[in-house]
Design brief:
mainly alpha, Arc Repressor Mutant, subunit A, Four Helix Bundle (Hemerythrin (Met), subunit A), 2 domains, about 70% helix
């Protein structure tokens, strides 16, 4: 943006850098969550700058955004990597989720309209009929995001979203396992959650959510091979 003399308006350059940073961060987030960049992958700033036709400044800003999301780890004087966690770390994330997601669900329930439950029910049936792990996770995230959409809290929702981002890769690998095994418990839990929400039963909904998260944590612990260390190139 410029004034009538063609001079950049105050803050225009900074705004441009911010927009570029968000564009790069969005593209990198998609690459990480899709598995294109698996945990432990080295992220080279010069390659990102060349790929997106940007300077180092918006690239560094984009990596800081992704670090705040829990998707990237920045090491001083060393570089950036896609975040990678071992089983004990992932179990800790899930134990935190077991405590905070029922809180978010309780905060959300009074603000949920009946049509939200219809949408969730439809998503639950779509999840039950797909054999694609990627599609399942996309639908699953939309399903649970809808259940939290009535909450007015900002901080709690951001924490939950960060936890989901940090564990996404491991949930993707586990989803592939349970789809291959034909496990249907997760679908029953989704239907139970919708029923509890429809009945405005916050206690039952929180109980289902806690059990849903805990069962995944326990199942992940039975598959330590999912946490095999990825060596950076």
């Amino acid at each position: 943006m410029t004034d009538e003399n063609g001079t950049p308006a105050p803050g225009a350059e900074k705004t441009g850098i911010g927009n570029t940073s968000r564009r790069i961060a969005d593209a990198m987030r998609a690459a990480i969550l899709s598995g294109e960049l698996p945990p432990g992958s080295r992220i080279r700033q010069e390659e990102l700058a060349a790929r997106y036709g940007a300077s180092r400044i918006p690239v560094r800003s984009a990596l800081s955004i992704l670090e705040a999301d829990g998707l990237v780890k920045l090491v001083a004087n060393s570089g950036a990597w896609v975040s990678q966690f071992d089983l004990s770390e992932c179990e800790e994330f899930y134990r935190i989720r077991e405590q905070i997601e029922p809180l978010l669900l309780r905060a959300s329930l009074p603000g949920l309209a009946a049509e939200i439950f219809d949408q969730m029910e439809s998503l639950a049936e779509q999840m039950a009929s797909t054999d694609s792990a990627e599609e399942f996770l996309r639908l699953d995230r939309e399903f649970h995001s809808l259940s939290y959409s009535g909450a007015k809290t900002v901080v709690l929702d951001e924490i939950v979203q960060r936890m989901w981002n940090m564990t996404h890769h491991y949930r993707l690998m586990f989803t592939r396992v349970f789809l291959e095994q034909g496990d249907t418990i997760v679908h029953d839990e989704h239907r139970m959650l919708v029923r509890a929400l429809r009945e405005r039963d916050a206690d039952q909904a929180a109980l289902v959510a806690t059990g849903h998260i805990r069962r995944t944590r326990l199942q992940l612990a039975r598959h330590p091979e999912l946490f095999t260390v990825h060596h950076s190139p």
